[in-house]
């Protein structure tokens, strides 16, 4: 294989990914990885029957292989199954986020390729978890110099940053050398894409599918000797330069790999509601207001939600016509929270969107921007005014399920059960939960996949 000169960023990442042992990873980080994989598999099972999930499988045509499509009868080629599973994992916008680390969804582009390659190679649960942690740290590392400008500029970090994390994770699972891992990451630097303009359509979850598939391709190419320029990430007109947004990349923000663990310090936020994360604090606040004060839909005169500019940029559908648009509609989601006392998977079914009581409240919801909030803040203030002039207010600084206030194990497992019930084919739910929640003890992940 042709050798190329080393690059600081790519070399440091490759050494970390290839040489860090499982024993060097904190137990708490491995546990967080277990929870993340459990959650991601659950939302993938539900997403397999969603529009984007079914479209992804249908588009594969006559593809046949030995790699499992989660929650379905199909087995596709490795690449196609990775694409289909990652797309399904993001189809409902119910997968986890890591705003402090990368302004995106860290798990969905990584879990699909890890399961697929793990199934092919008979990997152990510990090997899967080690690869996941390596990939998460790479995402946190590469996002620092260009965030939040990267996201503000219109890029979907789940696809662009997630691609590198998934590449690192697959390279680790394949046990690539540091040199080949470096080439894999630099190959991946030619592949990032994903526009925020496509939020609210089936293309948004396809972003996750293409990132997962491209990452798998990059790692497999490197394993066979493919090369890339050593400065493709941090060199002139490399990834940092081209994807940075309005501000120059700040390499001083690059963290110290292996001593500062992004998974522990920045963490993962698990979604309680299957929609854009920028709406979660407001949904929780509105639900609490409605339940505490027993507010009826027909008693509402006006609702004002005040949130960040980032929320306003992402939430482009005030009057949604489809379930995907509804996931990016603050008015609809607040109306659903008030009328139904929450937002569940059924809220995005076609007949539920047009429900008269919900539509009547939706028309009374206004989203306002608080210019004093940071661009990517998730804080929301909800003020509900009833027809008598009484005002009910609540400020929610963080959504439920954040890294510092996580869902309990019972809540996480209940979410998995709810999602698994939506899978197109029956799932051995109890067996799947037992295995995924104790992934460190699994000797061969193929036994887990059989239950899915």
UniProtKB/TrEMBL annotation:
<dbReference type="InterPro" id="IPR042183">
    <property type="entry name" value="MmgE/PrpD_sf_1"/>
</dbReference>
<feature type="region of interest" description="Disordered">
    <location>
        <begin position="384"/>
        <end position="409"/>
    </location>
</feature>
<dbReference type="Pfam" id="PF03972">
    <property type="entry name" value="MmgE_PrpD_N"/>
</dbReference>
<feature type="compositionally biased region" description="Basic and acidic residues">
    <location>
        <begin position="387"/>
        <end position="409"/>
    </location>
</feature>
<dbReference type="GO" id="GO:0016829">
    <property type="term" value="F:lyase activity"/>
</dbReference>
<dbReference type="InterPro" id="IPR045336">
    <property type="entry name" value="MmgE_PrpD_N"/>
</dbReference>
<dbReference type="Pfam" id="PF19305">
    <property type="entry name" value="MmgE_PrpD_C"/>
</dbReference>
<dbReference type="InterPro" id="IPR045337">
    <property type="entry name" value="MmgE_PrpD_C"/>
</dbReference>
<comment type="similarity">
    <text>Belongs to the PrpD family.</text>
</comment>
<dbReference type="InterPro" id="IPR005656">
    <property type="entry name" value="MmgE_PrpD"/>
</dbReference>
<dbReference type="InterPro" id="IPR042188">
    <property type="entry name" value="MmgE/PrpD_sf_2"/>
</dbReference>
<protein>
    <submittedName>
        <fullName>MmgE/PrpD family protein</fullName>
    </submittedName>
</protein>
<feature type="domain" description="MmgE/PrpD C-terminal">
    <location>
        <begin position="273"/>
        <end position="422"/>
    </location>
</feature>
<dbReference type="InterPro" id="IPR036148">
    <property type="entry name" value="MmgE/PrpD_sf"/>
</dbReference>
<feature type="domain" description="MmgE/PrpD N-terminal">
    <location>
        <begin position="12"/>
        <end position="249"/>
    </location>
</feature>
């Amino acid at each position: 294989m042709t050798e190329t000169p080393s690059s600081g960023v790519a070399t440091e990442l490759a050494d970390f990914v290839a040489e860090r042992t499982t024993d060097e990873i904190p137990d708490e980080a491995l546990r967080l990885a277990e929870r993340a994989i459990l959650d991601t598999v659950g939302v993938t099972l539900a997403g397999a029957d969603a529009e984007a999930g079914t479209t992804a499988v249908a588009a594969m045509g006559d593809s046949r292989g030995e790699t499992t499509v989660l929650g379905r009868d199909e087995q596709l080629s490795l690449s196609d199954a990775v694409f289909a599973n990652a797309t399904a994992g993001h189809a409902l916008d119910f997968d986890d986020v890591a705003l402090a680390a990368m302004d995106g969804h860290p798990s969905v582009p990584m879990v699909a390729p890890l399961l697929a390659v793990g199934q092919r190679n008979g990997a152990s649960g510990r090997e899967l978890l080690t690869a996941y942690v390596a990939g998460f740290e790479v995402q946190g590392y590469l996002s620092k110099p260009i965030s939040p400008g990267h996201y503000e500029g219109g890029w979907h970090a789940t696809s662009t940053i997630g691609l590198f994390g998934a590449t690192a994770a697959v390279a680790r699972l394949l046990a690539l050398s540091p040199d080949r891992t470096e080439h894999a990451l630099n190959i991946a630097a030619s592949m990032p894409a994903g526009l925020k303009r496509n939020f609210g359509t089936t293309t948004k979850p396809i972003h996750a599918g293409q990132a997962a598939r491209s990452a798998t391709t990059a790692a497999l190419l490197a394993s066979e000797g493919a090369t890339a320029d050593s400065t493709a990430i941090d060199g002139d007109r490399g990834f940092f330069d081209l994807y940075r947004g309005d501000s120059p990349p700040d390499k001083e923000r690059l963290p110290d790999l292996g001593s500062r663990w992004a998974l522990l310090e920045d963490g993962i936020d698990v979604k309680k509601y299957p929609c854009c994360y920028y709406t979660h604090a407001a949904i929780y606040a509105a639900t609490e207001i409605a339940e505490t004060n027993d507010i009826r839909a027909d008693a509402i005169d006006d609702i004002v939600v005040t949130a960040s500019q980032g929320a306003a940029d992402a939430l482009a559908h005030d009057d949604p016509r489809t379930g995907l648009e509804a996931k990016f509609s603050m008015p609809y989601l607040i109306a659903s929270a008030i009328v139904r006392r929450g937002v569940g998977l059924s809220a995005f079914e076609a007949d539920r969107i047009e429900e008269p009581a919900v539509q009547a409240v939706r028309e009374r919801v206004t989203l306002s921007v608080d210019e004093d909030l940071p661009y990517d803040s998730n804080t929301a203030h909800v003020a509900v005014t009833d027809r008598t002039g009484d005002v009910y207010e609540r400020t929610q600084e963080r959504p439920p399920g954040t890294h510092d206030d996580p869902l309990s194990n019972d809540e996480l497992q209940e979410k998995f059960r709810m999602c698994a019930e939506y899978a197109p084919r029956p799932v051995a739910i109890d067996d799947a939960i037992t295995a995924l929640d104790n992934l460190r003890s699994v000797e061969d992940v193929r036994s887990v996949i059989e239950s899915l």
